[in-house]
Amino acid sequence: MTGRLAGRTAVITGAASGIGAGTARLFVEEGAHVVVADMQVDAGRALVEELGDAARFAEVNVLDESQVAAAVDLAVSEFGALDIMFNNAGIVGAVGRISEMPTEAWDNTIAILLRGVFLGTKHAARVMLEQNSGVIINTASTAGVMGGLGPHAYTAAKHGVVGLTKSVANELAPNGIRVNAIAPGNTVTAMTASAMRGDASDLDTTQERIASTSPLGYAGLPYDIAAAALYLASDDARYVSGHTLVVDAGQTTSGMTPNRMNIGSSRQIHEAGRTS
After folding, report:
1. DSSP code, position 169
2. Tens of pLDDT along 157-205?
3. What is the pLDDT of residues 226-259, one digit of tens each?
């Protein structure tokens, strides 16, 4: 590895599984200290044990502002600074036809996917403004740049993430703080497997299905999104802010057939593919 993040500290929400876990591993390999922030306690602690002294665990539900603030403060108290905030925690959330969608499910989805990013950004900025430096990265989605690629609430929230990213980048640029987003296409994670297959553990079939529709002929993996986050977090992207980096094998530029995730019975898909 290149040590591109040597001596830096990151907080990653939703870091116990999927894209977040892949990013935590890559960041540590590149020299960073990482706070693994997640509500999945067992998985989060197991990842921290794997990563060793470079990592700490914080139990965080991104709907709880005090827990988000505490994760940021843990980074500062344990490692001396907050250089990178990766607001990655998310769910698929409310799925179903707009005419049948429970309002409570809609509100919960918007809260986790958009309010959660706001809270992470707010408390990262609180520390980074004092430092006059820092990088904030938000997980958006291809559903945040096009319609028809995800459920309605998910699509609305991810468009909001893209807008919030641009707005905050404008405010914080004079303070040396860069703010960007990543818009992943279909990526092989438990959450995607639950959405596509109805089985969060069916990663092999999910990978085959994603590969079959990929313009490049292979599926996106958590590492592919982590590599994009590494670029945005590093000095290689020192002149990049307010940008949404789409990582989708070119599907949004080549005419992707809508996945019709809005069709079917109303339900919610939560962290790591848990359904209700």
Report:
1. H
2. 999 999 999 999 999 999 999 999 999 998 877 777 667 767 667 777 7
3. 999 999 999 999 999 999 999 999 989 876 555 5
User: Is the Cα torsion angle 99, 101, 102, 104 positive or negative in sign?
Assistant: negative
Q: pTM (2 decimals)?
A: 0.91
The yes-or-no answer on residue 154 being catalytic is yes
Domain boundaries defined on the chain: 9-273
Strands 134-139 and 84-87: parallel
CATH value of 9-273 in 3.30.360.10, 3.50.20.10, 3.40.50.720, 3.90.550.10: 3.40.50.720
28-31, Cβ contacts within 8 angstroms, sequence gap of 24 or more: 28/52, 28/54, 28/55, 29/1, 30/1, 30/2, 30/3, 30/4, 30/5, 30/6, 30/230, 30/234, 31/1, 31/3, 31/4, 31/5, 31/6, 31/7
Task: Check 154, 218, 223, 239 and give the catalytic one.
Answer: 154
Burial letters 107-120, b for 16+ CB under 10 A, else e:
ebbbbbbbbbbbbb
